[in-house]
Structures
1.
Amino acid sequence: MQPQWVPTERDIAEARITDFARFVAERTGVRAADYHDLWQWSVTDLAGFWHALWDYFALGEIAGDVLTSTDMPGAQWFPGTRLNYVDQVIRQARSDRPAIRALSENGPIREVSWAELIDHTAAFARTLRELGVRRGDRVAGYLPNVPEAVVAFLATASIGAVWSACGQDYSPKAALDRLGQLEPTVLITADGYRFGGKTYDKRDDIATLCAGIPSLRATVAVSRLGLDVPDALPWHDAIAMAEAESQVITTEPVEFDHPLWIVFSSGTTGLPKGIMHGHGGVLLEHLKAVALQSDIGPDDTFFWYTSPSWMMWNFQIAGLLAGATIVCYDGSPTHPSPDALWRLAAEVRATVLGTSPGYVLACSKAGAEPSTEHDLSALRTVGITGSTLPTSSALWLSEHIGEHVQVCSISGGTDVVSAFIGGVRTVPVWPGELSAPYLGVALDAYDPAGQPVRGEVGELVITAPMPSMPVRFWHDDDGKRYHDAYFDMFPGIWRHGDWITITDHHSVIVHGRSDSTLNRHGIRMGSADIYQSVERLPEIAEALVIGAEQPDGGYWMPLFVVLAPGTELTDELKARINNTIRTEVSPRHVPDEIIPAPGIPHTRTGKKLEVPIKKLFQGADAARVVERSAVDDPDLLDWYSALPQTGHN
């Protein structure tokens, strides 16, 4: 297959990663012929690479060794070195561009200058201290994607406290399942938000949340709807001193692995796991991922459609580490029309825009013409994550936003709050493939015996430590849950849970989750391959496939389809679906049944619930296999549970 995007000589010459390669050559004598050579060095000489990265970004003095143990889990990074994530943000302050552009569904663009960002951070840090927040205490956010959330996070981090947040689309129970277990001392929230043309008053939910967290000393409320939140300190009062005079921010130096934030697993099968990352690991990983891999710098406007519930919110803040302007938007990407996100990107002159395969597919089916209807001349890169980007959608993007725009699918996870694989400015993009492993990521594909494979499907593994791997899980003092999550299958090797193929040109194809693998007659298949072919059909809004082993040894592989409005699942449409799968994927992927469904249940961050639905059809109790508050539309679980559990073999 031919690349859909190829870097020009100018792209390569001006790329930040090219400058880094020159820095490495001058420093070490290692002269990489191309990106793959540079990557190979970065995973062979781990200490040398991460030391070079530290010095390239001039992060200060290193107290001793870079890496004293390469054990996984248990690697020891930069022992004795002290720093604070916020210091790197402060270093980027400037007056010629804003730090944040904030968008909403019903108002003008609001700009937050770098001076305002730092002053408000300093003022809120002072308020937190006055409220009794100390190093190591947890500060929780129950907020939409607004600048105040960024300020609250930076203020929390600056004093050595630990941030954790979720969006206000989460119910009080779902928020309590996450934030409540941390016993936070202060809650930052908002009176509500607007989404899809509707207004959501969250005051009752806030009261429920506060009542469920007895450790809270104070609640601070941001005004989005102009409503009074009882017993809460108004945000404006919390930063009032910043309005009167410029604040001097003082950051608390902390150990390299001192907790920066706690992010959460989906929580579909139990209480969400709190995943803790350290200041130093996140700082290094995000500088690498944003500045080198994504080529984002001081002249960029970085806009990823996200919410505080998702790790991409944390990832977008990293734009500030590179001096870029970031964009906060708390509305719908499809309101008032399917192409709303493209319109917003044009308004803020975004150079890097991030979205999901689902949004791209929706635009394609709606007949959107982004580059024709909106001025996207500033756009250089479109980032994609959340699930696999089908080849057809990748090509649609090239055709409808311009072949000069690099389409960068990335894949990683909340686990490392970054990507393992993605794009780079000096490497071509092949449709349906991720261009390359990120620097410092010792990625491989293993067969069941733990042997590397090429050109065939294998387990995605990481064979050497990364600084942004979790410091630990919350309430996992002996480390057992952390070990069992990643290192149980291949001792000392991180198994991520994805099926991938590494190609002969070093790109990576992601086939889907290995824990939801389709295994018909001993042939392993990824669900993503089916979705790519079926969801492209105009009659199909979305699909879900499972493979359920039956008690008598049989295997049932149904395909659930959500039909487009006005569409019926006729025999002709079923035949066309089957034929599409047979010709575009393989005859082995053709489902046993095609069943119309009212919807597909997802986690709150958009992942299809393949494994829980599979367990339902194997006779498991719905209350045991999935936590309803972790599902975007819990009522759909009742529909799947009510389907007959017999006769599927």
Note: DSSP finds 23 helices and 35 strands in the chain.
2.
Amino acid sequence: MDIKRSLVLFFSSYGCFLFGQEKAIDTVYLFDSQMNKVKLFHHVTSITNEDAEKNSTNLSELLRFQSPVYIKENGRGAVSSPSFRGTTAQQTAFVWNGININSSFLGQGDINNIALFGYDQIGIKAGGGSVIYGSGAIGGSIHLNNNLDFNRGFHASLFSELASFNTYNNFVKGAYSNDKFSFKVSGNHSISRNDYKVQENGGKSYTNDNGQYYNTDVNIAAAYKIAPHHQISWISEIFNGRQHYPVHFGNLEEKTKYHTQNIRSLISWDWNKLRFSNSFRAAYTEENFQYFDNIDGPETSGGAGKNYILKNDFNYFLNSKWNINIIGEFQVNKGNGEGTSRIGRISRNAGSIAGLLRYFATKDLRFEAGIKKDFVEDISSPVLFSFSGKWNAAKWYDLGINVSRNFRAPSFNDLYWSPGGNLNLKPETSYQFELRNLFKLGDVKLSIAPYYMNIRDMIRWLPAASGYYAAFNTSRVESYGLESQLEFEKKLGKHILKTNLGYSYTKSTDLDTQKQLMYVPLHKLTGSIDYQYDFVKIYVQGMFNGLTYTDSNEKRSEALDPYFVMNAGVNATFLKNYTVGFKVNNIVNETYYTMLSYPLPQRNYRVSLNINF
């Protein structure tokens, strides 16, 4: 296999680069320079904007119905966190255009304070990824990716939605590009009174009182080819969100709220030649939050975190079979907590160096080995490694293997919260193994991926001798299970049928107590059917979630009962550019919870309009 064929496999497999003679011609620029390389060795579920519009309430709903991830949500639109393969929210990395954006304070991301729209693609990668994506990528990672097109001229779109509970959701996007310049801007505004009512088991009635929310998100991106092989690119995102926290006892309980403002900005200089490429990036991320223990009173506590990031990604083909990739990163993380956010002013430096070696034995067989060392101020970080292989063994069978060691550095709250922070904490580390099997028969694909994970020095907040809670390295967790996906797609004339069925089994055990971790269901099943004839499209979604314990002792009386939720919608496209949609959520009117005491809505409705210019 010659050097050009290697490059075609390496890049154009995923539609990012087309190579001709000795000049690389970019048709689509992806801000995350590693994502296409990751897809060569790992399974990444990609969710497009069209997919996102099916579950447009928020990112929590999207992940709940279109991924194996368990989403714990304190009521619709409120605080929400993910669990990949039986891990915690802190062991999931949120990656914005290649930059890890987990909160420096909590070490995790609040899903409902991340916009659903504004990204060109959302990627879901199960399994470890700390060698490339850093701290927290233990259970999996969620990728919020943007791209820029060239030679597309002007195009724009508008999505507008009216839904139950006085919910309004609007998203507008516009872009222009020629052969050297590309520009894109988008804005999303979502607001809801969110005062839904639920008839709970036992005859009780629940009202999501004080549950309103408001989100606004703006994205701006541009790229310019300053020379035949050089490109400067820039993207920024500004998010402003407000959440009111639901109360259970009406006027007898104090109503509270939470405000957050996030800024993310990235500038990149990319140099691409036939045998090598280099991407140098400078990024700035900022998180601000304010908590009000009385919605009409002054701010009770708050904080601000600022991260300054430099990152360089160098990639070189030694010959047609061997590729070397070196990634260096340096960060300055600053935090300031006020009021009851008791951490004071702090600053931490962190850096890392990673090396990856890829070997393309044949067009059907390839391997990747990686090693990484993090240098986090005042923390002894482990040496990380990864090994992956993918073999297209036959037309009907692919085999993939992934082994890795991953970690999570203690967050600011873990270290500095007063009282309870612990400066002697060690990073959480994990070892994991995955064997992915893909069977293909005609229009049917079946993926079966058993996995095993062992997590050490898990950080938990436990009662201390002095009476308050403190952070300790205590738990050892063993997680194993199976993820499977069955897909079918068929096109006959104007008829298009797509079906998707996913099942995950997750056994995640605290080795000290031999109990299942809380908020980790043993079974989760998701499925969808899409049928299109000419200008009409009908879709149905279903999700089954098994018994879920809400405490560390497996108390059946406190567990969340199994539930099945089904949605259905219809879209009709007129004059090519106008699409009208109608959807019913929770058709069977199921009463269900993802968090104890906080039911999610029963049957509700939405209508939408999508216009493409």
Note: The helical segments are 3-10, 35-41, 49-52, 59-66, 130-133, 412-416.
3.
Amino acid sequence: MIEVPAADPDICKYHGPILIAGALVLDPEGELHRPLAQDILIEDKVIVALGDEARSRGQAAKTFDARGLIVTPGFVNAHCHSHDTLLRGLFEQMTLETWGAVAFPFHWPPRPTEEIAVRTRAHAVECLVNGITTIQDMVTIVDFEQDHAAAVAGAYSEAGIEAVIAPQYSDLAGRAGVPFADDCFAAEEIRCLGDRSDFRPIVEKLTSIFTGVSVPGVSWALGPVQPQICSEDFLQWTAGYSAETGMRLYMHLYETRAEAVLARRSLPEDMGSAVRRLVRLGVATPRLTIAHGVWIGGREIDELAQHGVGLATNPVTNLKLMNGFAPIRRYHDAGVVTGLGCDNSSASDAQNIFQAMKTFALLWAMQSPSNDQTAAAAAFRAATVGGAKLLGLEGKVGRIAPGYRANLTFIDATGPAWRPLNSAVRQLVYGETGRGVTHVMAAGRFVVTDGKCRTVDEASLCRDIDRIREAMETDLAGVIGRAAMLTKSYAAVAARVAAEPLEFDARLLGPTSH
């Protein structure tokens, strides 16, 4: 039996050519069941050769012994939020609305910059040790404070993870996103949902962040949080700015039944469709990725596909917040590019791509013919090449092939989950938990070795987390108290939503999985 050797302690400091020797290379576009042992040659942060060519060209390179290891591309977390990392474990069996009344940062008093940096650093480390090397973070930066934006970007850059950051924004009052709000909430409760803002000062602050905060490995994107709480003027600005700059944009859409009911009741000019509204305003382009897309009609999915819009599905959060699950097979069959996200750490409770892949595969199987046998491969591709496309990184990350960045995840294949090796992709998706991740390379640099993050002092980080979390206690109690005052009103909304029929014009819905 092959024993996996410990990594050279100095390998993290090495920046020259590296020959990864003897790895079982599991590429999403290669052999998925019985991958071959191959060498991988890395120069200047990029994969330059595989197999015999790598060994021939890499004779002068530093050799890294990868025998007994499955090597996958570094995984892509196509949708997440770092702002609630310190709230993990607080919530269970809560609706999105009641959870969000505590978890969303705008319900809290202003946070110190150190807290922003520590929670982002914790988020980055959790991703890295779970084999994730590239993320899309829809972070809430309250009041768009530039020092907070710099703290988020700096934490990611220092940790060595590649991040596409989309600060969330909206300009309508919170009541605009809640169906039956005027009937179910008292006047003072309505004020707790948030006031309307002029979008023009928000634009100034956003563009100041985009131009003023620049660090290696981090890029910026647009994050209109939800279409129902963004004015048409703001959405049109978003579409125009994206077209002008090429900047990608990310948005939550149809996460809950309430959102679908709200769209059907409030958008008669768009046949009750939030998708049609995005098309009409020019937002629905190949630069747009929607997150969730659970309560959606079949013809709306077709419209998204026609306009090149992508989907970042978040199956663990959707189930934990009791919202159901996206018709992922229907999206796939329509041609919608699909990536996989881990979402909020206080909603899914983990930045664990292995949990997400397994849940994706199980839901895919439920929506497919029996004996289809494509679920594991679809989950693996969503977590690699699919996510890469959604982040605008197609051809750069998500594969193990010449010309791609050397983002690699090394998994111990000597453990019981991998013996015997019958199908690498199935054992990866259904059997691996993340405990087998031994080493992680990002842009040609080892950032995790022997299961430990080497770019961040984990012991020091844990002390910082404990200290800051203790200091949050008083504020947390106040936020929970205010949220509890809204519980009955949200329950009234939920009852109205549940009673509302979701039967609409057949021209809009078409076939659907719901």
Note: Residues 45 and 443 are 5 Å apart (CA to CA).
4.
Amino acid sequence: MTSTVYSVGRALRWSVTLSRKFMRVVPWLTLLAVVCSILSQFFMLAGFLLPLKVVLLLGSETVPVYFPSVFQDVGRDGLVVFLSIASVCFYLAHLLTGKIVDVAATSACKKLLNRSKKLAIFENQQEIASKGYARYSQNLATVGFVSLCLMVMAWFYSDIAIVIALYIGLCVLLVCIVASFSNSFHSKLSKELGSVSRLLGSLGFLLSFAYIVLNHLLGSPPGILVSVVALLLARQTFGRLATFAKDIQGLYGQKAQLRALFFHGHTFSQKPISRSQGFWPLIVPRARDVWIAEMLAEIVGSERFESDTQWFDIGLPDIVCYHVKVSTDDGRFEYVMKLFNSNRSAWAKHEATLLSSQRSLPSVQIVKFASVEGIHCHVFDVTGLKRCGKKETIDQLVKFRTQLMSTSPQNDLVSLYARSHPMLWQRLDQQSIIRMRDLLDRLADFDDVEQLLIRLNDIKETLRLLPLALIAQDIRPGMLWKSGNGECFLINWTRWSIEPIGAKLPVPVLYEPSFMESLGDIASKRADINELEPRNIQLAALISEFEQCLQRARYAEAHALVSKILLAAKPA
């Protein structure tokens, strides 16, 4: 329980630290924002309550007896008109005070940023600062609003105020106790505090409603009008408290940014999330040896083995690979165990989709898709294979890409990919080409660019009709493994895609004599490209490179490809 209370205490202390800063630098603006926010809540409450009273009046012939005596003399029709006008006025007052809160928050934020005298630290820092200040002022207003609601209920209906206060205290105590003894609940509370607090708030409102009903049936209740007001105040109280808990968590989550923005002597030094959680506890040697031993026991079907584990690099962040050599009674085996950090689960699922759906893939054999304490782990069998070094990877890259082009993607896989990602011809848009032309201006060949724009739809149609091929992007040293007969296999498929055949091929390769020989080899393995013209494959490669240049703002290089694209797209 101590750790949970300590966590709550840290969040509250941070809120107090912000309060001191804001009240010292912008006291009047903060006070104005808080007061107007409280008034806005009460105006909104009145604005929604009064229309209900109007409906009740319309359903009766006289003014009901539970209305105060001062309204009895006005008459039903006069009271309907009066309450309708008052409802509109309260709603307009709610909008006005809300606007004042926004203006005060913006002004206070500007003054705080000017006072701290900081350079631009990160993107959208003005927006982050404004939202942080608005969230703080809203929290302060919530404390004031809930306190006023409880005081009003204590004055007119003390029983319901006591019930609400006891329920809030009991919820806080129980949440702290359960979170201290249950790691799963503590984790859920950290990730889904908003939903938990809303659930508790809803239960609190139901408890208040049940008490009011039972009090009217069995006890000595106040007037019906007081009960209705108490019920509405209870609903607003629990609603605001649910938001308050989430906002306090949000303020503490932005501590690094807000401290760097508002406090003169602090800099922004937020640690990457992946360094403090995720798979990092699993790479500690003692913990690593335990889960690897458990994994090997499942794979080899025995606990009698000796193993040697060595880390190796594939050049991707938040992915760790281990080369594990195993000796058993049946022989010697080698495996690669690839761990994906929690922020790379999408990569793990993307790779698993391909490896489980595509046949005849030039991939290292997958042995197991596993999970280690919620972290994705893929196990590959590299027995008899040798990892390619940097020079060998470069030498084998074109050969491997050509080999991959020989693999026809499964129809189900194509359908799944097409529903999830746009294809090359769908990503090629006219606006990007126009921007390139406008930026280069006199440096661009206007006629070539215009021809490209005119023929763009024909080019898209040509690309759409091309056979599709699997693409393995960003192949780095450590990812290719070589067999004894010189055949290469890939161990990382985290960024695979499906594109028209020829896409992602290096442009210089298109004009080498060996390119035509490679096409012949591919045609012998894929019947769908037997009658395909080489210039169409060149077109796919050129358009792919053209798109990449535009995405990276290398407009001069993109323009240099225009003439080659027009030549490849020229009708036969």
Note: Residues 259 and 266 are 6 Å apart (CA to CA).
